[in-house]
Specification:
Distance between the termini: 11 Å
Radius of gyration: 19 Å
Number of helices: 12
CATH class of the largest domain: Alpha Beta
CATH topology of the largest domain: Quinone Oxidoreductase, Chain A, domain 1
Strand content: 25-35%
Largest sheet: 7 strands, mixed
Shape: globular
Length: 341
């Protein structure tokens, strides 16, 4: 089968791999219908993370081809959406609502790779969710978004306690930040401030529910948020970048007692000054999103066409052109790339 391999930073190719097979009774093998390139895939692409002939991809939807003898919740022929983290669904951590910290947790890209024609998914019952039927073609991008980026934005908004009567500020206008805007709107936020300098992303943020746009960054951005909120700061702040500046911008943008949901993967020596954090007196909650917790609800919202997160994909390429997709996202010519199979 064909699969995307990253040999070294900036070096992406299509290679032939053996078709996956059932190994454990809890496994499922799925035929990938669509995959995509994540912002986090750019870290190894840019040399920030180590990469060496690595199997790429962790966002995926597809059709179940084969299941192990212990799998009960999906069957061959089902169209499924999977989380980017493998989880058993039955351990104490999973049952508490944090499947991304499952005792069996494994990131899908580690040895699996879903930018490929097929994938073996361990712990299928705890990782995959079947859709109500075979989806219409136009729903596939939105279902794919639910696999990671939508679920991650949803967790960020949930962790930030977005809700009725709240003002939500979103730091980061990439795919996750835009999904955070959509999530905050769905959760009933009264005002949603998207921090963005890119006109096309500003337009999508407004379509998803943003009421205000702030183009300033850093402390200037903080000052603008304070100005818009009567000097108090936002009730809820979503941090969707992962840099030192974005973390501090998020913390300083929150009012005393406010909540910051952080889902930007921290890189390049991010170090929070604990003196400032202490006196900010805000709640911090985040990390790898427990996407599997949200999948049943998100799939239903997409199926009923209540939300259309698939609009976040602004470039679609065949799997063979994955290298072009990585370059487009790296150069910010695309917000998020869908790879069709």
């Amino acid at each position: 089968m064909r699969a995307v391999i990253m040999d070294a930073p900036g070096e992406v190719r299509i290679a032939d791999r053996e078709d996956p097979k059932i190994i454990d009774p809890t496994d499922a093998v799925i035929r990938i219908t669509a995959a995509c390139i994540c912002g986090s895939d750019l870290w190894p692409y840019r040399g920030v993370e180590e990469v060496d002939h690595t199997l790429m991809g962790h966002e995926y939807v597809g059709i179940v081809e084969e299941i192990g003898s212990a799998v009960q919740t999906v069957k061959p022929g089902d169209f499924v959406v999977g989380s980017f983290v493998i989880s058993c669904g039955v351990c104490e951590i999973c049952r508490s609502g944090y499947p991304s910290k499952c005792i069996h947790a494994e990131f899908v890209h580690a040895g699996i790779g879903t930018q490929a024609e097929k994938a073996r998914i361990p712990y299928a019952d705890g990782t995959l969710v079947a859709t109500p039927g075979q989806p219409d073609e136009d729903l596939i991008p939105s279902l794919l978004a639910a696999s990671d980026v939508l679920g991650t934005g949803w967790f960020a908004a949930d962790a930030a306690e977005a809700g009725p009567g709240k003002t939500v500020a979103v730091v980061g206008d990439g795919a996750v930040g835009l999904m955070g805007v959509l999530a905050a709107k769905q959760m009933g936020a009264e005002r949603i401030i998207a921090m963005s300098r890119h006109p096309e992303r500003q337009a999508l943020a407004r379509e998803f529910g943003a009421t205000d746009i702030v183009e300033e960054r850093g402390e200037e951005g903080v000052a603008r948020i304070k100005e818009l909120t009567g000097g108090l700061g936002a009730h809820s702040v979503i941090e969707a970048v992962g840099t030192q500046e974005s973390f501090m911008q998020a913390i300083h943008s929150a009012r005393g007692g406010g909540h910051v949901g952080f889902v930007g993967v921290a890189h390049e020596g991010v170090n929070l000054p604990m003196g400032e954090v202490f006196f900010a007196e805000v709640h911090l909650h985040g990390g790898p999103a427990p996407v599997r917790r949200y999948l049943p609800d998100l799939i239903q919202r997409i199926w009923k066409r209540e939300i259309n997160p698939g609009k976040v994909f602004d470039l679609t390429l065949p799997l063979e052109h994955a290298a072009e997709g990585y370059a487009a996202m790296d150069e910010r010519r695309a917000t998020k790339v869908l790879l069709s199979l």
